Amino acid sequence: MAREGGLPSVLWAGREKHVTRRRSPVTLRVGYASDGFGYLAELGLPGGDAAHSAFTLDPEIKRELVWAGPVLRPVTTLLQRRGPLVQVRGDDGFDVLISDLAGFESALAVAGDPARTPEVLAVRDQVRSWRFYDTFRTDSGAPARSVQIGTRTLALADDGSDLAAALQTIAEIGVVADLDACVDDAFPGSRLRVSSEGGRFDLSLHQPGLLRPLRTAELSDGTLRYLLWVAALLTPRPGELIVCNEPETSLHRDLLPALARLITRAAARTQVLVVTHDADLAALLQDQADSTTVSLHKQEGETRIRGSEALDGPSWTWGTD
């Protein structure tokens, strides 16, 4: 959020209920629900003394809730935060846990007492396990093309800088057969090799017909990008969610079926969310079992789910302010 310009960059820029001037308080609500726990946070612009800070684009956390089960209800609420006050459910209602929490701090970060708030730890660990892969750089100066210090890498960095280490980790403690199969699926007869010199890892790809392997710096943009997706999706510790934004970028059309099979293989172990503008990739994924396709469209500047009605979504409530 900070890289894109702070809270104003993610606020709704369209009209508010067919009026051109904003009348409601500026707020951003985010949340998720699962069978185990749910969480929501309400963010707003700094107020009071914080309004005079130089960090005026940083959001202030106004409200947080943690609850048990997929739907927020008063009886399932386990933690509630209003401004600086954080309360947790006790034997006789809610007990004060923190009374002076700063607006820039989340209750998830400071309320992690395993004995008193195990549900907060569960939510925090769940969110931390999510992986978001937006745009992998593949230009000549991309981090993935550089030789890097190698260490066991259970999840590829979002910039791909530890690609060689991530692939070597998959080879050693992951499913090396899946790794070999996904490389061969995209580049028949090819095989990967990770070399280490002085603790620095480099990647090379052996391809049929070439007299020597190609090092990472020599790979085409499409080849490198596919290998980045292999490292991201075959991670030995996939967490509970992997988000892939436009994975088809820079890939040759012939690689789309292999990419779809790679995504499907990963989806057998965890939930994978793919955001794509490519109709062919969407069709390939839609043909797979247990897949769900959600089509979006613009309506008066607002992104909506195509064909959905007001009551079609999952049960959800933001609770009372």
UniProtKB/TrEMBL annotation:
Q: Which UniProt keywords apply?
A: DNA damage, SOS response
UniProt keyword DNA damage, yes or no: yes
Q: Does the keyword DNA damage apply?
A: yes
Which part of the chain is the ATPase AAA-type core domain? 129-279
Signal peptide segment: none
Q: What Pfam families does the record point to?
A: AAA_21
Q: Which residues form a coiled coil?
A: none
Q: Report what the protein is called.
A: AAA family ATPase
Q: Which organism is it from?
A: Microlunatus aurantiacus
Lineage of the source organism?
Bacteria, Bacillati, Actinomycetota, Actinomycetes, Propionibacteriales
